[in-house]
Design brief:
alpha+beta, Alpha-Beta Plaits, Dna Ligase, domain 1, 3 domains, five-stranded mixed sheet, 19 strands, globular, disordered C terminus, binds 2'-deoxycytidine-5'-triphosphate, binds magnesium ion, Rev_trsase/Diguanyl_cyclase, UmuC domain-containing protein, mitochondrion
């Protein structure tokens, strides 16, 4: 292991680059909610459109952006800048989730290694190292302009023609000059070039479903995500820095670096003794300041001082240098858990709690239909609104446990005093079987579940009715029971494929952050201790004593959380 972190004297040593034998694509759909609404109402494509959640715009289309309207802007301000702005309601996330699943399924169908990871609703990472390596072997260096990209090892005719002389789309640095004569056949440039053509092809497939996107192509997740941000919308950028990504990262505001959050920035400002606003503080400022080292960052951010997890200093230090060894997580056919939550300004009446629970539970049931029924894709065209009727299909998995979590309301003036999870309490029970009855409307099931199960749970979590002031309700289903392959009538190859996916998931854990906009669920009942052993021969990771996996350094904290939390997908309700 690199011992930088433990030795303050070695602080200026350049960190070792890792993982640059990979080709990673990061897709981010353009103005996602707006595109969903536009596809359902094509006449809105040419007008400035804002998607409203409570008093702000969750997003707006690019016609509105030309008028200066921005994401997360207040409605009043947006209307002032663009009086013709058309507003559409974005409180119900179901249609966006459905499209998100369609896009994810499409991209997943092109993956060979199953490493396809969602981030929030509109972003997907793909590790295409294997597809690119295969195609590298097919490149005819004497006739690059008439190349063929093969999408299937079994069927050589499945693929597309492309010109391998040039990278597709934008490149960074823009003035990159390749020394093709000397680069050899297995050059980083050629692999990224192949990745760029695959990215373009996949973006075209998404456009076939009605959705434009931006894509970044690079050697790790961090760089791919940041590269894609360079040229938006409907474009792609390949980061061709074959030497160092530092010049690419240096001018960026620190807050743009995924994995460096508000707390880290505040702490960093104190270390740098700067009053720069968040936009003024760049990666360069932080990286080159003599006070910044892995050791100093660890002292600042980890343990009792910073409240961060062990290793955070080194992680941040490596991110500043563009190094991110975290893996693209393998795709799952079903999530580990599904949860929906909403926040309130203090519910004081039981009738309000009941109404909140019915609303959340109805959304949760719809979500279960999307994520857990096997032919949901087939019954829902990509751009239609969410089905409000009864679901169809067979259950791929049925959760066995229902969990309710509540938290008291804290006014904004108190936020500094409390951790996000402060005051959360949870209780779990067996999930009643009637929720899987596809002949009953989700609304009716929700009413029954709230009355018979969730309200009693609520009472046992909050026995003192006189002090009721609820700030958060979260309903979650977990403990998935997978359907037996034979009873699902799937063909034998599909069964093997699913089994392989399951084994991959069991064998390897790559959790880092929960996806954007998705909260990690707190499990107050089970605190698993995770111990990490650093092994001399494990250059790129540490071995977890619980499951024996070697985990990349970046994923260590997250892997711990994964054991602790039985990682899953919990999404906040709209707004
Ligand atoms: N979203 C939200 N609240 C946030 C951030 C995002 O509701 N704080 C929603 C609205 C967006 C969607 O998530 O449509 C995707 O987020 P992006 O940041 O990718 O924004 P867009 O896709 O809308 O725009 P862009 O073209 O910049 O990617
Ligand atoms: Mg987007
Ligand atoms: Mg996004």
């Amino acid at each position: 292991m690199d011992m930088d972190m433990d030795n303050p004297d070695s602080k200026r040593k350049a960190p070792r680059r890792k993982g640059d034998d990979r080709v990673i694509l990061h897709f981010d759909l353009d103005c996602f909610y707006a595109q969903c609404i536009e596809n359902a109402n094509p006449h809105l494509k040419s007008v400035p459109l804002g998607i409203k959640q409570k008093s702000i715009l969750a997003t707006c289309n690019y016609v509105a952006r030309k008028h200066g309207v921005k994401k997360l802007m207040g409605i009043q301000e947006a209307k002032r800048l663009c009086p013709d702005l058309v507003l559409a309601d974005g409180e119900d996330l179901s249609p966006f989730r459905d499209v998100s699943k369609q896009i994810y399924s499409l991209l997943k169908s092109y993956s060979w290694n199953g490493r396809v990871e969602r981030l929030g609703l509109d972003e997907v990472f793909l590790d295409v190292t294997d597809v690119v390596a295969y195609n590298l072997g097919l490149v005819n260096h004497h006739c690059l302009e008439e190349s063929w990209f093969c999408l299937s090892r079994e069927d050589p005719e499945r693929g597309f023609a492309f010109d391998a002389r040039e990278v597709k789309g934008c490149v960074w640095p823009p003035d990159f000059v390749s020394d093709r004569e000397n680069e050899g056949t297995d050059s980083l440039r050629l692999r990224l070039l192949l990745g760029s053509h695959l990215a373009f092809y996949l973006r075209q497939q998404m456009e076939g479903l009605g959705y434009t996107s931006a894509c970044g192509i690079s050697t790790n997740k961090l760089l791919a995500k940041l590269a894609g941000d360079r040229n938006k919308p409907r474009n792609q950028t390949t980061l061709l820095s074959s030497h160092s990504p530092v010049p690419f990262l240096d001018p960026l505001p620190l807050r743009k670096i995924p994995g460096i959050g508000g707390k880290t920035i505040t702490a960093m400002k104190s270390l740098l003794k700067t009053d720069d606003d968040d936009d003024g503080l760049t990666v360069h400022n932080a990286r080159t300041n003599p006070a910044v080292s892995p050791f100093a960052l660890e002292r600042l951010l980890a343990g009792s001082g910073g409240g961060g997890e062990k290793g955070i200093g080194r992680k941040v230090w490596l991110l500043l240098h563009g190094i991110d060894g975290s893996e693209v997580k393998p795709a799952r056919d079903v999530p580990r858990q599904i949860g929906i939550e909403d926040t309130y300004r203090g519910l004081t009446q039981l009738s309000q709690v009941r109404a909140g629970l019915v609303q959340i539970t109805t959304s949760l049931l719809r979500r279960m239909h999307v994520d857990l029924l096997d032919d949901f894709d087939a019954v829902t065209p990509p751009i239609s609104p969410a089905p409000t009727s009864v679901g169809k299909g067979r259950w791929l998995a049925q959760p066995k446990t229902l969990r309710l979590t509540t938290r008291p309301y804290h006014s904004p003036s108190e936020w500094d005093k409390f951790e996000y999870n402060h005051g959360r309490v949870s209780k779990s029970v067996a999930l009643p079987r009637f929720v899987f009855d596809l002949n009953i409307e989700p609304e009716s099931i929700a009413e029954r579940l709230v009355e018979g199960t969730l309200m009693p749970l609520f009472h046992s979590l909050n026995p003192d009715k006189s002090k009721l002031c609820i700030g958060l309700l979260n309903v979650c289903v977990t403990n998935m029971d997978r359907a037996k392959e034979s009873s699902r009538g799937g063909d034998i190859m599909a069964a093997f494929q699913r089994q392989r996916e399951v084994e991959e998931i069991r064998g390897v854990a790559f959790a880092d952050e929960p996806p954007d906009g998705e909260e990690k669920a707190e499990d107050t009942s089970d605190d698993t201790e995770v111990e990490w052993v650093e092994e001399e021969d494990e250059q790129d990771g540490v071995r977890c004593r619980l499951c024996g996996c070697v985990i990349p350094v970046f994923a260590v904290e997250a892997h711990g959380r994964w054991h602790e939390l039985d990682e899953g997908w919990v999404e906040p309700q709209g707004g």
